[in-house]
Structures are given as C-alpha cells and as structure tokens.
Design brief:
alpha/beta; 21 strands; five-stranded antiparallel β-sheet; seven-stranded mixed β-sheet
Length: about 450
C-alpha cells in the first residue's frame, strides 16, 4: 500500500514510541516512503545500542585490549615505559562519542522531516497518543519500539547493585567486582574489568555460561577466562547485599561465607519496556514474559498497532530490530509486497577476551534435528600468540549435514572472530556446503584460512 498522507483524519500517518535502532529505522524509512511521521523518546535518541549498549561497550572492549597488546608488544621488539591506565579518560571519551552518535541519529530523523518529541508517550485511545506534556495527537499507525531494560533480581539489598547501564558512568574502577549472570553481557564486562586490573568474580545460578552457544566454544572461553584470572562460581544465588561503613558491600552468596566487594553488577537478562505505554487500554496482547506479541509482519492483535525490536523479545539484537523496522516501513508504507524478517540463521557474537562468534545450529541442535551430522574442528594457537608467548588457543568448529554436506553451523572463539564470522555467515545463510569451502583457496597466513582448511 502506497503512502498517501491522511492528515485530514489523523495528525500523523505513523507515530513511533521509542527512538532506538528499530524505531529510528522504521521512522526514517516510513518518512522516505512519503508518510508523515513523529517519534517520541523519553531518554536519548539512539536507544540501548547507541547510548548504553553495543557501541560504548565495544569501545570499552577496545580499551581493554590494550592491556594485553602493551604486554605482548615487547616480544615484537617494542620497548615501553611505565604503563598507566586512567579510567576517567576512557570513560569520558566514550561518553563524548556516544553524544556525537546521538546527534547523528537526531540529524537523520530531522533530515527526513520526522517530528521528534523528547518526552514520554502513552496510548490513550484508538489511534490516540498522549505525551507527558499533556499534548494529544492521533496517528493512523502506531509503532512501539521501546526496547528492554536490565532485569534486577529480587534479593535483600538488590538496590545496591548496578546494571550494565551504570557501568559506563562509574567514577572509579572497583578493586573487586562480583558480576551475576552467565550470558554475553556478564562475560563481556567480566573481560573488560579484568583487563583493567579488577578482581572479577562471576556468579551464575546455573551450571553453564552462554547456554545458547556451542559447548566446545563456551568451554574454551571458561578455560581461557580462568587462566586470565576471572573467578567463576556456578549453582550459586545471592542472599543479600549490605553496604559497608567504610565503603563497598558485604555480599552473602548461597554457597559460601559473607565476603566484601567494591561493586556488585547484575547482568541476568533484559525485560521488555511495556510499563506505562497504555497497552492494556489499547487491548494489545502480551506474552508470558511481558513481551508484545506480534505476527511475522510485526503487527499486534490490534490492527493499527505494531511493535519491533527487544520489546517483542523475538531476538534481542540490534541488527534484528533494524531489519524489523525496515520491513515494517516497507510493508505498511512501501509500494511493494509485504516484507517479513527471516529470524533463522542469525549470526551473533560475544565480545569477550577473546571473542566468540556463531551462526546456525550448535552440534547438539544439529544432532537433534538432523540425526546424521559431520563435525570439523580446527584447534590452533594464533601466530601472534605464539610469538607473544601467550598460551591461548583458538577454536573453530563447522557443523555439516551428514547427508549432503550442507554447512548448518559455524562456531569460533578467536581474536577477531566476529569480523571473520560476518562473511562466513553469508555462506551458511546461502546454503553452501563443506565442498564449497574446500574449493576456496586460503588466504595465508590468516586465522580465517582455517575455515577452508578443516579436514
């Protein structure tokens, strides 16, 4: 359906609530299709990824890598003087760049004539939105793209812990930090704080880290992280967190005596942001975890209300939210056929030290679904690590359908694994086979050549 602005009946063709990655893309593309668009954001334009997620986190990861690079460079002939790390310098430079990117996102919306309301918005009636200022507007279509927020567990003194949101704003680094969680956020921040010289303890209520990743890869991360000095405790829960008079906190875990820590961080998942949106008034159906239920075209059970991104809890990844926002705009305001996002075979990464990257099925999933599988492994020490005297081995794993050789999964833990995986993921998504990889000439010497040399 082509966009013909119906401003006689409604103030806007589209009103988006939430200016994160999904909401911004949907609004910009809808406006490019000719729709009259407004967007409301109560915090900062850019959302979790830009303001308090992937972007500033990756900058901290870069900063943390210098700890090992400055150590390793001496084996490569470099002489360095006294090393000193200033957390506030990195923190402030990262926050400054976040502000720059926020401005770029805002410019993008304004350049497409999208009206920005920097305030909270609530659905108060059919096609009606009320802003925090009291202003009421109407829209033919409403898109909810409010994202998610960190889950904070219920335990005595939980209010004394921080989430990943606050980690970017710390006044100083903790000497000892206890991080609750076993997912990607917990492991990424554990690696960051460890490289900055903090004593890092990961506490996980379950038995495994990174449950959705292949067992061999996550086991290798546990081995390397332990070797780097990160302490892990499994099958453990928090009983209480109590402030200490001289600073820091007394922490009691279920399996040991009370101990002291300078900081406690919870990284135990994220919860869809649905509070105060007026969804119950609008009759929007929610799932068991509070997520907005949508069909394959991101439409809710209410015809004119859609939702994209983490608030739908389909796949909580920025590029997925962007794709969903694009597909929504093309479907509702474009001139072509409806567009649905394919949520299968999505590549992902953990920016740990070293990073993990994966696409497709794990070995266990492949055996359950396909029965006959062939697994290829490359377990090696990267050339740089050899000369640096760093005893860290990388692992690459390829899972193939035993019947036809089609590659159904690739998993790796290695320096720059996410950079290598992006190209490899295209091949897996395209349905290429092990023979196709074997027929490709290697680029030597690289780590990526292992992908075409596995036997």
């Amino acid at each position: 359906m082509a966009a013909n602005s119906e401003t006689n009946e409604y103030d806007y063709d589209l009103f988006t609530i939430g200016a994160g990655s999904g909401g911004v893309r949907a609004s910009r593309v809808s406006a490019a299709h000719g729709a009259k668009v407004a967007i409301a954001e109560e915090h900062r334009v850019g959302g979790t990824c830009v303001i308090r997620g992937c972007v500033p986190k990756k900058m901290l990861v870069y900063g943390a890598h210098f700890a090992e690079d400055l150590e390793d460079c001496q084996r490569f002939g470099w002489e360095i003087g006294e090393r000193k790390f200033d957390w506030k310098t990195l923190r402030d430079n990262v926050l400054d760049d976040v502000t720059r990117i926020e401005g770029a996102y805002t410019d993008t919306l304004e350049n497409h004539d999208v009206t920005i309301f920097k305030e909270r918005a609530e659905i108060t009636g059919p096609h009606e939105i009320t802003l925090a200022s009291g202003k009421t507007v109407t829209a033919k279509h409403i898109l909810i793209a409010t994202g998610a927020h960190p889950r904070m567990p219920e335990c005595q003194g939980a209010e004394h812990a921080i989430s990943s949101n606050e980690a970017f704003h710390l006044d100083e680094l903790p000497k000892k930090i206890i991080i609750a969680g076993g997912g990607y956020i917990a492991n990424e921040f554990a690696g960051i704080f460890n490289e900055f010289g903090c004593d890092v303890h990961i506490v996980n209520r379950g038995e495994v880290l990174l449950r959705q990743y292949d067992e061999a890869v996550r086991d290798r991360l546990l081995q390397i992280s332990t070797m780097k000095g990160i302490k892990f405790r499994f099958n453990t829960t928090f009983e209480y967190i109590k402030p200490c008079d001289e600073g820091g906190y007394f922490v009691k875990l279920s399996d040991c005596d009370e101990e002291k820590a300078d900081l406690v961080m919870f990284a135990v998942g994220r919860v869809p942001n649905i509070k105060g949106l007026g969804l119950e008034n609008a009759g929007v159906e929610l799932g068991d975890s509070g997520e907005i239920k949508v069909d394959r075209f991101s439409k809710t059970n209410v015809d004119h209300i859609y939702a994209v991104g983490d608030v739908t809890d389909r796949v909580q990844l920025t590029p997925v939210a962007i794709r969903e926002g694009q597909a929504f705009a093309d479907t509702v305001f474009g001139k072509g056929d409806p567009v649905a996002v394919d949520h299968s075979c999505i590549p992902s990464a953990v920016f740990s030290h070293p990073p993990i990257a994966a696409v497709g099925m794990t070995e266990g999933e492949a055996k359950n679904q396909l029965g006959s599988v062939k697994v290829y492994l490359s377990d090696f020490r990267p050339m740089k690590n050899v000369l640096a005297g760093r005893n860290e081995r990388s692992l690459m794993k390829m899972i193939c359908d035993g019947e036809n050789g089609k590659i159904v999964g690739i998993h790796m833990i290695a320096p720059e694994a996410p950079e290598m995986m992006q190209a490899a993921a295209i091949a897996v998504k395209a349905g290429l086979t092990k023979a196709d990889f074997d027929a490709t000439v290697a680029i030597h010497p690289t780590m990526a050549e292992e992908l075409v040399l596995m036997r």
